[in-house]
Design brief:
The chain is mainly α. It has 7 helices and 4 strands; from the N terminus they run H-E-H-H-E-E-H-E-H-H-H. The chain has helices at residues 7-22, 29-35, 38-44, 57-76, 96-104, 115-118, 121-137; strands at residues 27-28, 50-51, 54-55, 86-87. The strands form 2 sheets. Strands 1-4 form a two-stranded parallel sheet. Strands 2-3 form a two-stranded antiparallel sheet. Helix 1 (7-22) crosses helix 4.
């Protein structure tokens, strides 16, 4: 089993995503990485990040692990799957990991390993609802 992301990396990712959610914006995976401090980016992506603006396979797994941990904790706290606002630059949709997590949590029931199932109307509705849930939960800073 891969190691859990450090609290520093998870906190940094959570902070970036919370800022974006308050502004009611999505963010690409690449832009999320760019917003992290270099030392945290290197820790989040053990073999150092980007090549030709595409994440390498190892970097994708590392980032997915961090996003899953952050999103699960946020959902457990009642603020929704925060990773819903992280999207691919080429499709404007979350990656497969988001839909797998949503399926594990019972939010969707279709298979999520094919492009066709990720493009389903039910998945789109679930994802749009989750984005709105995240935006609403972060509309006002906790004080």
């Amino acid at each position: 089993m891969p190691p859990e992301p450090s609290n520093d990396v998870a906190d940094a990712v959570r902070a970036v995503l919370t800022d974006e959610a308050r502004a009611r914006r999505t963010i690409t995976y690449e832009a999320l990485l760019e917003r992290l401090e270099p030392s945290l980016r290197d820790e989040a992506l053990r073999d150092e990040a980007l090549r030709d603006e595409a994440l390498r396979d190892e970097a994708r797994r590392d980032l997915a692990r961090v996003l899953r941990a952050v999103s699960t904790a946020e959902d457990d706290a009642g603020r929704g799957l925060l990773s819903a606002i992280v999207v691919r630059a080429d499709t404007g949709r979350p990656g497969r990991g988001f839909f797998r997590l949503a399926a594990e949590l019972g939010r969707v029931t279709t298979g999520h390993d094919t492009a066709a199932s990720r493009e389903s109307d039910a998945d789109d509705r679930m994802w749009a609802g989750e984005v709105e849930r995240v935006f609403a939960a972060h509309a006002h800073p906790a004080g």
